[in-house]
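Co-fold these.
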Amino acid sequence: MRWPLRRGRGHSAWRQGRARRRWCLWVAALAVTSLAAACSNDSESGAASTLDTVRETGQVRVGVRNDNPPMSFIDGAGAWIGFDIDLANAMADQLRSELVLVPVTSTTRISFLQEGRVDMTIASMNHTRARDESIDFSITYFWDNQSFLVRAGTYSSIDELIGQRVAANAGSSAIPSWEDYVAERGGSAPEIVQFDDKLAAMQALRDGAVEGYSEDNVTLLSLAAGDPDLTLLPGGHNPVQFGIGMPENDSAWRDQVNVALQELWIDGTYAAIYDRWFEGPDRIIDLPLDGEIEVWP
Amino acid sequence: MIDWLTPETLNLLAHGVAVTIVLTLITSASSFVVGVVIGTLRLTDNRPLRLGAGAFVEVFRNIPALIQIIFWAFAFPSLFPQAARQAIFFDNAVVNWLGAVTGLSLPYYAVAACIGLVLNTSAHLAELFRAGVGTIPKEHVDAARTLGAGRRAVFWAILLPGGVRAAFPAITTRLIHNMKNTALVSFVAVPDLFHAVQGSITRSFRAIEFLTLAAVLYLLLAAAMSVLLRQIDIRLHRGRGRVRTG
Amino acid sequence: MSEQADFLLRNLPNLLIGLPGHRPGGLLMSLLLAVVGVGIGFAVAIVVGSAHTSRSRAVRWVAAGYVQVFRGVPLILLLLIVHQLLGSATVLGVVSTPLLSAFIALVLYSSSYQADIIYTGLRTVPTNLVDDARLMGSTRWEVYGHTKLPYSLRVMQPALTGQAITLFKDTSVVVILGVADLTTSARIVLGSDVTNAPYWVATYLTVGLLYFVVAFGLSRVARRGEKRLQRADLVHSLAKLG
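Predicted complex below.
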């Protein structure tokens, strides 16, 4: 919009002056951004146990995902449902608190905990040592493995995928695990394409861009449920254990959450929830229970 | 102090910055050329060509770049039979050569992203160029014609430089917008800066640090582009008044 | 072919007003995002754009920095940053959601572009207009409110409407936060059933068409409005001359 005003000769000196001023502006902009970042880092939260805040407010803020059927997703009527959602409700009852669901993604499910924005995340999160450096985990509440989804009739075991181009979700624990699995069997470093979006990865698999797609089997089964063109290879390269994420170094809160989980196991609530999603007649996918929650005497 | 920048993430980010810069250069240059061609076609006397160019501009600038990128990457291949898709898009001599040269796993997705970005940006540039040509005094063209200059000569000596010169500040703004739009290629698994930042966050769980770093890097890129294009702008105006004979 | 048509017909409401339980969503949400982003962004832009012409150097620099930062960062990154900073914080009594983050990021983004346009307009106000107003005894603020700002807005109106339409198209990137706009709704529709895989082309063509119809339609309406305004202006000035 400015250009009609700029016509005319002999403006190059003036223009150069403007160019210099422009530089200064950019430097100022960068300074402001860095300052903002510095401030935001300082504001990280205080020392009181989450247990105190939950008791005080009578509310427990649980981070859950909304795009991960059958663990947690939004159904056709807009209701938030899934295994993790049922578990979140049961945990809130157990903790005698009102449940506040906070949507998280695979990126924010850890950072929101670190910044005290949620009290726990029940977000189909594998307990790994790397993650444990940033947050704490409850005892294991879900057992699964990571295999590959492939186009029907192309491969019959995961070992046949060594040396093939495969897809994984960005940042998924399936990536380092598959790298290790391949290395242990003497293969060269695998080519893993990282997708931000599961639908995109599925489309890449269907189109032949990749030969397999690795993620938690529960997720793969639900993504491919009812599609005769795709099959899940048996077994897996990464047995995974889901834990509830909690803020780092808050032992009072961690104990409370672990005990609540054990109570749900003892009184049969856990079995009822598992049955609803994975074993019972109305199950969405078939995934027999493959572990048990430890119970402290 | 900066314990969150591990060699691994640093490497990832450096690679991402390189991809973003290369994508920006390729899409900016292609968009400029396509934009000038389409903008010129909108000024011709040939009615079908003019209407076609007009349709190009309206269609591709009124559909969000993100939709265009996703369309070319994930929807377009499914127009072909499933059995043939792999050979057409992901496993043939051309694609494998591209992959070897660029180091990208799936070069087709990068190509699809570029197509989406170039169509979108060139449609905007075509309109800016056309408006720029519109500011050239008609007498200049008439004078050249009277002096016996052919249509080609008039285009190369007057319309092209004059149009670009007049529209250059607006073109600069649009090209910087295009640079920012390259962040959208992460939606189609192209490992650019934005993709690298998201990858770093899921690896290190330090969201705000990496997001801020990304913001600073994008600001730096925008600043560099702004300064570079400003220099070109100054050059363009320094040459003013010199008449090419043809 | 009829399967494709069936699928589209079945899902058209989902794309237009959102999926059940996500309403308002779809195209309606895209429009809502754009209206809020442009509307509140306009108010912010008047302040920032005016501050950019302030006599105080510090104020000028803050305004310039604001414009430079929010225009230099990709909207998609801005969305993530705002969402990360807000988290589940309570803002003005509202528990933060992805939608609130999207609104805030869009306001920041849109206001920076609009502020720059208004600033440019303010600088093109003819000095004799300002001098005349001052001679008539108007205070600095009166000159600003009655002469400079209206002049700038009038001159820059085409640029401002152009920016508004651009923002409407840019809202598509809120898909990164999962806000149920048109782009996200298309994603949900395609992902809601594994048998929907053959409908990617039809769905994205429809989505593209919907964005096109709105953006192209708005730009046509805006252009007609501008022409009418210009004609009115001419009449106005002639009347004054008479």
